[in-house]
């Protein structure tokens, strides 16, 4: 465990005795309080691919829907699913010219898409719907997280936490990024570590209500983190559990620590990049990295987060069925099972 986290962990232990199971707050908040009782769920398909260079990730949502995700959520998990049967944000918003800006590729397109997505997600979340967004590349989290963060503040008067499950930290600033791909930067914009002046592509994120705090961000599954990103994690004391931590403590203990860090009165947005899983389970993704989570470990993370009763939204991103095509079906199935676990299917 990184030293900053172990200090925090010790402090929590002193405060609460043992961790998550016995953390006591005055008013434990359950799903019933965070979300509407009739299990309203909005399903948003966001097939944007401009946050990285490989085509095919725009077809991720279609693959998940065609494999039956919406029907399963309705029929098996009994959610009241709001789904408009449309894939949004594919090639419908391509500006005529989109020159690089601070080294970022497609800055204008990504900005326009994520800003629209942000209000789209906000409009669902403010009604108390659980929001599931299917990507698309991970740049779409700029839209989903800013949308739910704003809704959470308005509706619950609370700051939201983010659990980011990924092989990558996706917290590069335009200046620390080697690739210029914005799917490697969403958390830098969402936390304000990379901000822009008004009038610049991501200037719209300057409003505090759209942002999240670095203290409420927790990573799980990291194993391919760039130099500049490691420095940002260290300097900002961000809670991060790498694959090394998963090996050392086991996924059970890692989840105890991750959830203790967040505390049990905080709404949670889960952003799950399918490349957090080992390519053995999810080969069809743009930046696959070996030595990853097993499907069981990924499912366990989703189950634990569901079990908090505080989960209000999730993203499932980076499924690219056109890569490693013989493994595409397996990747889609893994992605669907992560979503189902996060929605409570496997808990008794
Ligand atoms: N969402 C992802 N798959 N991100 C991969 C990011 C890879 C690399 N760190 C970059 O910034 O380009
Ligand atoms: Mn990733
Ligand atoms: Mn990612």
Automatic annotation (TrEMBL):
Domain of life: Eukaryota
Gene Ontology MF term list: arginase activity; manganese ion binding
Requisite cofactors: Mn(2+)
The keyword Metal-binding belongs to this UniProt entry's keyword annotation: yes
Protein EC: 3.5.3.1
Cofactor binding remark: Binds 2 manganese ions per subunit.
Cellular component, GO, one term: cytosol
PROSITE patterns assigned to the protein according to its UniProt record, in alphabetical order: ARGINASE_1 (PS01053), ARGINASE_2 (PS51409)
Reactions mediated catalytically: L-arginine + H2O = urea + L-ornithine
Broadest EC class assigned to this enzyme: hydrolase
Protein's pathway: Nitrogen metabolism; urea cycle; L-ornithine and urea from L-arginine: step 1/1
GO biological process, one term: urea cycle
Alphabetical keyword list: Arginine metabolism, Hydrolase, Manganese, Metal-binding
Entries under SUPFAM superfamilies matching the protein: Arginase/deacetylase
PANTHER family cross-referenced by the UniProt entry: ARGINASE (PTHR43782)
Family per similarity comment: Belongs to the arginase family.
Protein name as annotated: Arginase
Organism: Zasmidium cellare ATCC 36951
């Amino acid at each position: 465990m990184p030293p900053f986290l172990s200090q925090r962990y010790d402090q929590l232990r002193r405060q609460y005795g043992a961790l998550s199971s016995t953390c006591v707050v005055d008013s434990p908040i359950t799903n019933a309080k965070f979300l509407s009782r009739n299990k309203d769920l909005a399903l948003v398909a966001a097939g944007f691919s401009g946050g990285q260079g490989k085509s095919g990730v725009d077809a991720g949502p279609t693959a998940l829907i065609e494999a039956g995700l919406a029907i399963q959520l309705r029929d098996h998990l009994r959610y009241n699913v709001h789904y408009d049967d449309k894939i949004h944000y594919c090639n419908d918003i391509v500006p005529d010219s989109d020159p690089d800006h601070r080294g970022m590729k497609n800055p204008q397109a990504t900005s326009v898409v994520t800003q629209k997505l942000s209000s789209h997600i906000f409009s669902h979340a403010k009604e108390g719907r659980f929001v599931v967004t299917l990507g698309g590349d991970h740049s779409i989290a700029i839209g989903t997280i800013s949308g739910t963060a704003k809704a959470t503040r308005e509706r619950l008067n609370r700051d939201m936490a983010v659990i980011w499950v990924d092989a990558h930290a996706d917290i590069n600033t335009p200046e620390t990024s080697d690739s210029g791909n914005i799917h490697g930067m969403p958390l830098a914009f969402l936390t304000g570590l990379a901000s822009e002046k008004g009038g610049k592509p991501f200037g719209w994120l300057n409003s505090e209500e759209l942002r999240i705090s670095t203290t409420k961000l927790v990573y799980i599954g990291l194993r391919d983190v760039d130099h500049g990103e490691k420095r940002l994690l260290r300097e900002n004391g961000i809670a991060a559990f790498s694959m090394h931590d998963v090996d050392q403590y086991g996924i059970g203990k890692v989840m105890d620590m991750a959830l203790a860090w967040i505390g049990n009165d905080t709404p949670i947005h889960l952003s799950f990049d399918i490349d957090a899983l080992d390519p053995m389970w999810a080969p069809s993704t743009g930046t696959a990295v070996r030595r990853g989570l097993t499907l069981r470990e990924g499912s366990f993370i989703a189950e634990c987060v569901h079990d908090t009763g505080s989960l209000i939204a999730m993203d499932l991103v980076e499924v690219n069925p056109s890569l490693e095509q013989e493994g595409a079906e397996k990747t889609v199935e893994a992605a669907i099972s992560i979503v189902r676990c996060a929605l409570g299917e496997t808990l008794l």
